[in-house]
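Meet today's protein:

…
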Amino acid sequence: MRKWLVILAVMAGCASLLPVYAQETSHIAYVDMKHVLDNAPQVVAGRERLDQEFRPRDDAVKADEQQLQAMQQQLAEGTGLDDESRTNLERDIRNLQRAVDRRREDLIEELNFRRNEIEQRLEETLELVIKFVAEAEGLDLVITDPVVLYYSPRIDITQKVLDRLKVEFEADQQELNGR
């Protein structure tokens, strides 16, 4: 009997040591960053601006590529070309190929640089928006990609973040249009 009383007393003592916060529920949420970065209005608008800005240069490179292809086809057919004309055409093809490659590389490099600028600006806004949504929802922890293996749709706040980003974007657009 005494052994049972000692065991019961130890168990009661251990139970009293449990922290109070262990009984509270933590609120955790998840944000799908890939979805946000693909669909945020700031990114969509940035993509459209970049498309408008870089399309003329891209079209010019494509036109040169078509010209290069026509020249290569003319060389392959080789009809009516003397040795000097063939040599000149081969040289022109090499020169145009180098120019096209260089312009394409420059275009891709500049486009990637500009995309990174847009994403960096969005990251600052995104961090503030996620904090805003987390505080508004009373969340204790927000988890993002890429280390998440599974999440329940019940804790997914991605759409709320996108909605808030849209509000921020529209406010920025009104501010820009008001100037």
About this structure: The first strand starts at residue 28 and ends at 31. The mean pLDDT is 84. Residues 16-178 form a domain with the Protein Binding, DinI Protein; Chain A fold (CATH 3.30.910.20). The two ends are 85 Å apart (CA to CA).
